[in-house]
Write a structure and sequence with these properties.
The structure is a single chain. The protein has 321 residues and is an alpha/beta fold. The chain is 41% helix and 14% strand. The protein has a single domain, classed as Rossmann fold (3-Layer(aba) Sandwich). Strand 1, helix 1 and strand 2 form a beta-alpha-beta unit. Helix 1 packs across helix 6, helix 3 packs parallel to helix 4 and helix 8 packs antiparallel against helix 9. It is globular.
Length: 321
């Protein structure tokens, strides 16, 4: 039984990763930012509270005896920003925090660290071809830049110490307890107003959290994964209108869409200060997952229909509480 430390265990993705690893026979050690005493969800797991994540975080109590680490904890996009220097905070948590964890993990003899990064490290949009492992990084926003710096720091520690690093660059992740833009999309699809998005012709990759957790487990287990960077995603890539129709179906709704020229959407979005939102809705961002499928023989165990139905069931139950 391999002892594996999972950071960010109480977060959205951690709630998928920890039970899956436990079911596969791992001795899972969770780390949380808050109090471990008050965390009833994790009664079945050894849990350590590490406080805020950054260059001074002390991971040693959790790392004692561990053979592997799954690093999920991160500062993601913040809807209502309160810090005065968001860029510095992203770097402190995501880059310096990851470097601190990697160094302490190596000191404690951890053999492999799996790091969940983001496809945004490659850029915000694709054209006629998907993001591939051979593409140069082109991070644009503070979050993506901090994730890229975290990857660089992790690889540096791995080279210096011999600890194996595996980097998984994920597209948008959805599932039960999802937040952010996908949650907003759930609300839109559950509403009665038609959406002016039928004319959009794009291609986007997503990944269900259950599939992401399975890719993490595969990256822990496959010998070939050591030192590699992979892109992951569901079997299906979808356009924005198709995604809305699928979400609406999962919610028991009819996806009401009508066409508005994309140029007009962008013009109105610019006037309303929503250029980034419109770019995400209208642009393409898709990934080539053939490398992890070929080298590790990995395939998503859950279809998008199943993933969206689970997400929708959580959403409807949440709204009824």
């Amino acid at each position: 039984m391999t002892r594996v430390v999972v950071t960010g265990a109480k977060g959205f993705l951690g709630r998928y990763v920890c039970p899956l690893l436990a079911a596969r026979g791992y001795d899972v050690v969770r780390t949380l930012r808050g109090s471990a005493v008050e965390d009833a969800e994790g009664a079945a797991f050894e849990t350590h509270a590490v406080g805020g994540i950054g260059p001074d975080t002390d991971w040693r109590a959790a790392l004692a005896g561990a053979e592997a680490v799954v690093h999920l904890a991160a500062r993601a996009h913040v809807m209502n920003e309160i810090v005065t220097d968001p860029a510095a905070e992203f770097m402190r948590v995501n880059a310096a925090g990851t470097l601190r964890l990697a160094r302490q993990a190596a000191e404690y003899g951890v053999k492999r660290l799996v790091f969940v990064s983001s496809v945004k490290v490659n850029g915000e949009k694709t054209a006629d071809t998907p993001f591939r492992e051979t593409d140069p990084p082109k991070p644009e926003d503070d979050y993506a830049i901090s994730k890229r710096d975290a990857e660089i720091g992790l690889c540096m520690v791995a080279e210096e110490t011999g600890m194996e690093a595996v980097i998984l660059r994920a597209p948008l992740i959805y599932g039960a307890s999802v937040k952010g833009n996908f949650f907003k999309l759930l609300r839109l699809c559950d509403g009665l107003l038609p959406l002016p998005l039928a004319a959009i012709d794009n291609r986007r990759s997503l990944i269900f959290a259950g599939n992401m957790a399975d890719a993490v487990a595969c990256s822990l287990e496959a010998e070939e994964a050591g030192g590699q960077t992979y892109r992951v995603g569901d079997d299906d890539d979808v356009s924005t209108p198709e995604l809305i129709r699928r979400i609406a179906t999962a919610l028991g709704r009819t996806g009401r869409l009508f066409p508005v020229p994309v140029g007009l959407l962008r013009m109105v979005g610019g006037l309303a200060g929503k250029t980034a939102v419109i770019d995400r809705l209208t642009g393409s961002s898709w990934v080539d997952t053939s490398r992890i499928r070929h080298e590790l023989e990995w395939a998503p165990p859950h279809g998008m229909k199943e993933g969206l139905e689970e997400t929708a069931a959580w959403y409807k139950n949440r709204e009824s509480v």
